[in-house]
Each structure stands twice: as structure tokens, then as C-alpha cells.
Design brief:
Blueprint (H helix, E strand, L loop, with lengths): L5 H13 L3 E2 L10 E5 L19 E10 L2 E9 L5 E9 L7 E7 L11 E8 L6 E8 L10 E8 L7 E2 L16 E10 L2 E13 L18 E11 L27 E10 L2 E9 L3 E8 L5 E3 L28 E8 L2 E7 L14 E8 L6
Parallel strand pairs: 1-17
Antiparallel strand pairs: 2-20, 3-4, 4-5, 5-6, 7-8, 8-9, 9-10, 11-12, 12-13, 14-15, 15-16, 16-17, 18-19, 19-20
Length: about 375
């Protein structure tokens, strides 16, 4: 149940800070900072580029997996009726602009209230010794309260990610905690030895925005109460049945401790390296920006505010692209693959990848390398 007030929540957040469950940092503590070079072809996937007219309104939030010498991208599209689907495309690893459509792999369930609008925010976990797993957020019937109708569900594939089947009508993440009682959404599942680790968008209660910060809060422009959202954490032995080992978000929103006021963290992506773990997620104030964190143990996370996800050639270090670009206002929904000492990242541009009058948007690409390396 959502029984925690904002003041109790902020006190709990302060206690977490004190116990070093997470922290701010201006100095890298575990892993090297990365420099980013952005593709001159951005956006590399545009609404309507493939699967027209089914995908004419949106190209957003991808999950990329490595299959032999190719990359396969699963991403979220939207049609003119505002129905969602998940589609797949492929490209050679040595030609990241040469995408070929494979088809629609997952559609809405019009007879299911929890998924009548359709699936979004897919993440795919390939497995050599079992079913492939796809974790999705279902978008259901609108709620009278205006709250987002989100649930996290599982989809499985027995043919290495070509065809998919909904696993159950029940969400895999029960809404039993104060920090997820209003819904769970996008998710990143990391198979770490014998343990599956899930990091996910986790909604606690909706709150009346602080008057002093209303102009800094995106959702306050159209909602009377705004979501209070952090990164939740769960563990599993099979990727299907999950438990919550923590009594709080693993990474809470920073609220007053960050300017502009940060009330929402979402769509995490976590990878494991030799020296620790990296997380990227979206942070919402006036608009989405991508945030960078590191951890030595996958539980205790450090923000790195100096690791601005920005073009090294951009003179304005504000975490978005230059004027006229597809990501001039927002960057969100990261997906990262590490290959050697390089980090391939795909992310979504303005307005969550949704088209609009005069708006260029879609899915972009950038290459990250440790700061002492200057290679392309």
C-alpha cells in the first residue's frame, strides 16, 4: 500500500544517503568516465522508416542483442490509433546504419484490459540453455485518476527471438511495496552468474508538486499530482519468479538534492564489467536527461554528475543535442552493449520518440570510450 508521505519518503532518502546505499559523486570512484561520439546519421531509426503505417507515430526504447556477427534491435512503435507493437530489425556489426526489418514480434491484446493499448519498453535476454526472455511494460485501459496504467510482464521465445508468446496475464513484479504500489514499468534484467538481477521503473504514490518546483517538473504541466518514481530492484533464480531483497528503491529520485528538481528515474540499463557495474537511466525534471552511475556490488550506486552524456564537440554541456537535432530537448531510454573497451549505446530522442509538428525524433546511436582513449 502507498502509505508513505512525501516527508517520510524524503526522510527515508536522507537515511539512505547516510548509509551510503547511494551517493552523489563529482569524482569517479570505481570505473573510468566515458567520452561519447554521436553518429552523424542520427536518428539511426526514425518513426515510419520501417513498418509503415504501423510505426508512423513512434520509434522508441530499443533493446539490442548480439547474435553472431549481427545486432538485432527490438523497439517500440505506435500507429495512428495509438496502439503499440514491438518490432525487430537487424544489421551487421560492422555496418550499424544498414538495418533490415524482420517483422512485428509482439502486438497488443485488445481483449485484455491490462494490455489493450499494447506492449512497450521491451528488453530481451537471450539464453543458450533455455527460452529467450522478453520483459515488457503493458499499457492498459486508462485509469480514472490519470495515473499511468503500467504493469511489467514476461514474454518468451523458443526459436531464438523470432516468435514470442505472452507468458501469463499476471505481472511478474507484484505491487506489494510502498515504493512500487502504483505500478512498475520498463526493466533491465542482468543475468549475473546464477542470479537474475532486475532493475526497473518503480512508482510509489503520486504527489502534489512542490509549488516552488512546479515549473521544473514535466508532468506538472498536465497532471494535478505527479508520479514519484525510482529504480526498484528484484532478484530471481529463473528470471520468472522474483523477490524484493531491499525495503526501498535501489536508486531513489534525488528530489531537492538535485537541480533541476528530480522526481523521476526510469528505464535503467545495467551492465557488468571486470571492475564493477555501470548503470544508465533517465532522470526527469523539465525533460529527460540520461544519468550515469557506478557500483562495486550491483546494490550501492554512485551518481556521476561530471559524466555528462553529451557530444564532446557540443559547446553547451547540457546533456542534449544541438539546436535542430532530433535530441535537442530530451535523451532517454538507453540500451548499452559493451564490446572490448567500447560502449555502443542506442537511446531515444525528443518527446519519447513520438512524432509531432516539425519534430524530428527517433532512436539515436553513440559510441563511448574510456576518457583516456580517443579512438572512434
Amino acid at each position: 500500500m502507498c502509505e508513505m508521505s512525501i516527508w517520510t519518503h524524503l526522510s527515508a532518502t536522507a537515511l539512505i544517503l547516510t548509509s551510503l546505499n547511494w551517493a552523489f559523486s563529482d569524482t569517479p570512484t570505481y570505473l573510468e568516465p566515458l567520452q561519447w561520439q554521436f553518429s552523424e546519421s542520427n536518428p539511426v531509426v526514425r518513426p515510419g522508416q520501417f513498418f509503415s503505417p504501423l510505426g508512423d507515430l513512434r520509434a522508441s526504447c530499443c533493446s539490442v542483442v548480439r547474435i553472431g556477427d549481427t545486432y538485432r534491435m527490438y523497439y517500440w512503435i505506435e500507429d495512428e490509433n495509438r496502439h503499440y507493437s514491438i518490432v525487430a530489425i537487424e544489421c551487421p556489426q560492422d555496418d550499424l546504419n544498414n538495418w533490415t526489418p524482420l517483422g512485428v514480434v509482439l502486438s497488443r491484446q485488445p481483449d485484455k484490459p491490462h494490455n489493450s493499448q499494447g506492449p512497450c519498453y521491451a528488453q530481451v535476454v537471450p539464453q543458450d540453455d533455455g527460452s529467450w526472455l522478453m520483459y515488457i511494460c503493458t499499457w492498459g485501459e486508462p485509469l480514472p485518476s490519470g495515473e499511468l496504467p503500467y504493469q511489467t510482464h514476461l514474454v518468451t521465445s523458443e526459436d531464438k527471438g523470432i516468435t514470442w508468446k505472452y507468458y501469463s496475464d499476471s505481472p511478474i513484479l507484484p505491487l506489494t511495496e510502498w515504493w512500487n504500489c502504483k505500478g512498475t514499468g520498463s526493466i533491465c534484467v542482468l543475468k549475473d552468474g546464477d542470479t537474475f538481477r532486475a532493475y526497473f521503473t518503480s512508482f510509489s504514490e503520486y504527489l502534489t508538486p512542490p509549488e516552488a518546483h512546479k515549473t521544473q517538473m514535466f508532468h506538472a504541466s498536465f497532471l494535478e499530482k505527479v508520479p514519484n518514481v525510482g529504480i526498484g530492484y528484484a532478484e530471481s533464480k529463473d528470471g520468472i519468479e522474483w523477490t524484493y531483497p531491499l525495503d526501498n528503491w535501489v536508486v531513489p529520485p534525488r528530489h531537492y538534492w538535485h537541480m533541476p528538481y528530480e522526481y523521476l528515474l526510469s528505464k535503467p540499463w545495467v551492465i557488468k564489467g571486470e571492475d564493477g557495474y555501470r548503470m544508465w537511466c533517465g532522470g526527469m525534471g523539465r525533460a529527460y536527461r540520461l544519468r550515469s552511475l557506478t557500483s562495486p556490488d550491483a546494490i550501492h550506486w554512485t551518481f556521476h554528475n561530471d559524466w555528462t552524456f553529451d557530444d564532446v564537440q557540443d559547446p553547451v554541456k547540457d546533456g542534449v543535442g544541438p539546436s535542430g537535432s532530433f535530441d535537442k530537448e530530451m535523451r532517454s531510454y538507453p540500451c548499452v552493449i559493451k564490446a572490448g573497451d567500447r560502449y555502443h549505446v542506442w537511446y531515444t530522442g525528443d518527446w519519447f520518440g513520438e512524432v509531432g509538428p516539425g519534430r524530428l525524433t527517433g532512436i539515436g546511436y553513440a559510441l563511448g570510450t574510456p576518457s583516456q582513449h580517443k579512438g572512434s
